[in-house]
Amino acid sequence: MSSSSSPSSSASAAAHSFNKILNQFKHSSKLRTALDVEDSIKKLRRLILVDGIPSAADSTLRPRIWKILLRVQDISADTFLEYVARGPCEVREKIRNDTFRTLATDRGFKERVREDMLVRLLDAFVWRNHDRQETQQLGFTYVQGMNVLAAPFLYTMPSELEAFFCFAKFIEESCPLYVQPTLEGVHRGLKLLDRCLKIVDPELFAHLRSKNLSAEIYAFPSVLTLCACTPPLDQVLQLWDFLLAFGVHLNVLCVIAQLLLMRDEVMSSSSPMRLLRTFPPLEALPVVGIAVTLVRDLPTDLYDELVRHPFAVQEA
């Protein structure tokens, strides 16, 4: 980097580039066509990949970008308040058993997101889907891991209202199979992780297999929570910028990327599960960089399966 370009000035320049695109959504005099919107989203994606979202330079960027990537438009305070007014849903006990543990070691999270906010959002989500059961193919209730998937939205969004509608859109459209009672999408993701690892690093795959280690055993939390279980939270949010921009299916490759970053230690360990029980602190930039290169190594049909596994219901 040249001496004339400091990290803060390049972050400011990146923030300016993002704002330029975001302001088109607000200030366009002509009605924007669907093509215009898609073109802007394409530009946002490219910027996320090249620069990352410079939250330190402009804290309003991430919530605005996430809402656009998720295509969240209808935010009705009345609807949300109506769900909240109904009080505890039928699985409130189950929710309370999980919420107090959510990102418990992250002080910044605990300061910004109280447990009652998580409980309220998850209760409201169950009520929302209680009302919509007749109109959709998949039903939703509260399942294990949902508390951790809700956490980044409550931390990032300026209000519980926005967090709720972003979370609901994300769960219902991006990864509905991850939150079915059987966790079908999670188990499919874990099987795909094994198949992808066998192709991109047969030696590492064989070493883990020789110790009877499959993804089901060592990668379940990382796949279930889309890596939100691996601190620090600021890195999780950067990783999620990438997943929301390009698809949650890529989380499987992000988990493989984390394995590759600790490959030497895993290969030389006689009991690798000790290392894999707790992944090293997340570093979003190298993980995303490796994940992007792994895409090229996968056969088209396997990559297509990977893309579809969080949402495509398999025919019986």
Kindly summarize this structure in a few lines.
This protein is mainly alpha-helical and about 325 residues long. The protein has helices at about 5-25, 35-50, 60-70, 75-85, 90-100, 105-110, 115-130, 145-155, 160-175, 185-200, 200-210, 215-220, 220-225, 235-245, 250-260, 265-270, 275, 285-295, 300-310.
Describe the structure.
The chain is mostly helical. It is globular, with a radius of gyration of 20 Å. It has three domains: 7-69; 77-174, Helicase, Ruva Protein, domain 3; 184-308, Cyclin A, domain 1. It is 66% helix and 0% strand. The protein has helices at 7-27, 34-50, 61-69, 77-85, 92-99, 107-112, 115-132, 146-156, 160-174, 184-200, 202-210, 215-218, 220-224, 233-246, 251-261, 263-268, 273-276, 284-297, 300-308. Belongs to the BUB2 family. One of its GO terms (molecular function) is GTPase activator activity. It is found in: Cytoplasm, Cytoskeleton. Its main location: cytoplasm.
Chain-wise SSE layout:
Elements: H1 7-27, H2 34-50, H3 61-69, H4 77-85, H5 92-99, H6 107-112, H7 115-132, H8 146-156, H9 160-174, H10 184-200, H11 202-210, H12 215-218, H13 220-224, H14 233-246, H15 251-261, H16 263-268, H17 273-276, H18 284-297, H19 300-308
